[in-house]
Amino acid sequence: MAIPTEPLSTSILAIMYFGDVVFAVSGALTAARYRMDVLGFVLIGTITGIGGGTIRDLLLGRTVWWTHDATELILCGAASLVTFFFITSDITRRRGMIWADALGLSVFSVVGCHIALEYGVSPIIAVFMGMVTATGGGLVRDVLTNTQPMIVSGQVYATAALLGSLTYACLRYLAVPEIPTEVAACLAAFALRASAIIFDIRMGPPGEFIRIGKDQSDSKPKGTNDGSNA
Question: pLDDT of 17-61, one tens digit each?
Fold first, then answer.
């Protein structure tokens, strides 16, 4: 039997809506790289914004949030439209997508873990749901745009999401106040993801656990989502 959906706190709503906006921007900037029209911008941006939370709610058997509160859909659509009318150069699009995605990843890892814990699942499942929430939208975005997903291209991506959700679950278990817990967990996830972007840190194949820097012998496959800052 489904557990009733509890109202979210103001702080969680705030960071959830922030995550919707920045993820929608990352989706819209990806649409710009493929020269999509305005409908393509709105579609890819909105799916990126709500995709991870939708997958989480379906896995939990929870009512999908945006089906009874259209705020997220409106925010994602508006952010996508604003991006369509105000994008500039290709470099700005590329860098903007990477950093908007990093921000969305960080906050959604916390939102997803929080919602799962409130729903009554075990901490281990909640941490996993935080990762699903943070990476699901980007995964759907990359699949729809025929881009190799960051989550399977060696990016320190799901790892950063797991760090954020694990930090949140641990601090909450230690009864740290909610807002400091949310801030610390978001910062932990963002710090790891940002470090990976700036220093080009990647997970390597068997025999090469971590790669740092651009002196990699093998070239990236066509369509790979390069998470570097260049």
Answer: 999 999 999 999 999 989 999 999 999 999 999 999 999 999 999
Whether 1 maps to a domain, the answer reads: no
Range of the domain at 96: 10-212
- Number of Cβ within 10 Å of residue 43's Cβ equals 18
Phi first, then psi, for residue 191 (nearest 5°) are -60, -45
Distance (Å, rounded) from C-alpha 222 to C-alpha 230? 17
Helix (H, G, I), strand (E, B) or coil at 18: helix
Q: Number of structural domains, the chain?
A: 1
Structural domain contains residue 223: no
Please indicate, yes or no, if residue 2 is contained in any of the structural domains. Answer: no
Q: Is residue 229 part of a domain?
A: no
> Phi/psi at 201 (nearest 5 deg)?
-90, 130
Query: Do residues 49 and 29 lie in contact, with contact meaning Cβ atoms separated by under 8 Å?
Result: no
What is the SS3 assignment for 183? Answer: helix
The overall average pLDDT reported for the chain is 89
